[in-house]
Amino acid sequence: MRSILSHFAIPNEVADPQPLKIGIINDSFIVRAVNPGERSYFLQRINHHIFQNVEGLQQNIQKVTDHIRAKLIAAGETDIERKVLRLVPTTDGGLYYCTPEGDYWRVYVLIEHATSQEKVTPVSAELTGEAFGRFQCQLADLPFDELCESIPNFHNIEFRLWQLDEALQTDPLHRKASAADIIEAIDRRRDDMCLAERLFREGKLPKHINHCDTKVNNILFDEAGRPICIVDLDTVMPGFVLSDFGDFMRTAANTGEEDDPNLDRIHVNLEIFEAYTRGYLREATFLTDIEKQLLPYGCRLLSYMQTVRFFTDWINGDTYYKIQYPDHNLVRTRAQLRLLEEQEIVAPQMQAIIDKFTNV
Ligand code: GN1
Ligand code: MG
């Protein structure tokens, strides 16, 4: 492990890397400074089975963090090193180090005195909405095609439906016969759910840089409980703002669990919806009218997309998502489908909340 560190431009003396139990995609380690007051670091092995274009991924992160840093400097902010991540280059100026065995490693400067949260409250939902709104706003003038899709077609529902159709054709474990109701529910909504992709092709809906993993645990908070920095930039890529809004609501504005076996527990938490929306719209001042109007649709789109992705994985024999019991992906599918149905029911209330904050 120390030999990995020797390939990075770390000027100060550091201790041995200590493994951290965060995230399930990359392996993470903390590398503490030996002398007090000096920089510590965050070392990660990048999962290159999921992120197959590590060069493109690292370029994305460098562009996004440079862009945000320039914005913070221009705004006269202080404490900038805690407000945006900084990649540490390799000794020959690269953005990552690849070992002879083919493992990919990167190093960030560690953000000190920061905490993270797993569950939101209405107060933290509003702060989180502001933080993701500010993040999108800081990146709104970075042309979306300057970044690559670190996972190609990640939030493209047409592609996800194509993947499902492929899986259903093969049906390797003969599972589809027992899930006709799910297939029907997905099919019935196909046309509606591909609206965003159609609007993009018609030039009516723009793409922007999105985070694409807008969970509250991807925000670092300071000691006073205020968001300081957005982390986990692996999926930052071009897409619709609906992705980030919708994925937060999918994960946080649900009274049940993502994989809740008891569907009666699943409802939309409108209090969280309203709090996040208030914070988000306050900061995301770049949004066009159509983007604002489509935000409730964005919630449904992300729940639908996750339904399709879990279901595809179940049909395929559980090759992508880790499962804890045999039909876990089927249970996840049904829970996400129920969330979608609940979001359909409260769509008018969601729209009224959006309208209240946008004065239309
Ligand atoms: C994966 O591992 P996690 O929870 O950060 C997935 C997301 C899904 C989520 C569903 C790279 O994210 O897109 O929404 O599972 N990330 C990737 O729980 O596929
Ligand atoms: Mg994550």
Account of the 3D structure:
The chain is an alpha+beta fold. The protein has two domains: 2-109, Phosphorylase Kinase, domain 1 (2-Layer Sandwich), CATH 3.30.200.20; 122-358, Aminoglycoside 3'-phosphotransferase, Chain: A, domain 2 (Alpha-Beta Complex), CATH 3.90.1200.10. 44% of the residues lie in helices and 10% in strands. The protein has twelve helices and nine strands. It has a five-stranded antiparallel beta sheet with strand order 1-2-3-5-4, with no helix packed on it. A two-stranded antiparallel sheet has the order 6-9. A hairpin with a 5-residue loop joins β4 and β5 (104-109). α3 runs parallel beside α8 (270-283). The longest helix is centred in the first third of the chain and has 21 residues, at 54-74. It starts with a helix and ends with a helix. Residues 23, 213, 218, 232 line the site of magnesium ion.
Identify the CATH homologous superfamily of the largest domain: Aminoglycoside phosphotransferase (APH), C-terminal lobe
Strands, total number: 9
**Looking at CATH, which topology of the largest domain would you report?**
Aminoglycoside 3'-phosphotransferase, Chain: A, domain 2
CATH class of the largest domain: Alpha Beta
Radius of gyration: 21 Å
Structural class by SSE content: alpha+beta
What percent of residues adopt helix (DSSP H or I)? Answer: 40-55%
In CATH terms, what is the architecture of the largest domain? Answer: Alpha-Beta Complex
Number of domains: 2
What bound compounds does this protein have? 2-acetamido-2-deoxy-1-O-phosphono-alpha-D-glucopyranose, magnesium ion
Estimate the global geometry from the Cα principal axes. globular
Q: Can you write the helix and strand succession as a string?
A: HEEEHEEHHHHEEEEHHHHHH
Largest beta-sheet details: 5 strands, antiparallel
Helical region count? 12
**Residue windows where pLDDT falls under 50 for at least 5 positions:** none
Mean pLDDT: 96
Alpha-carbon distance between the termini? Answer: 57 Å
Percentage of β-strand residues:
5-15%
Strand order of the largest sheet: 1-2-3-5-4
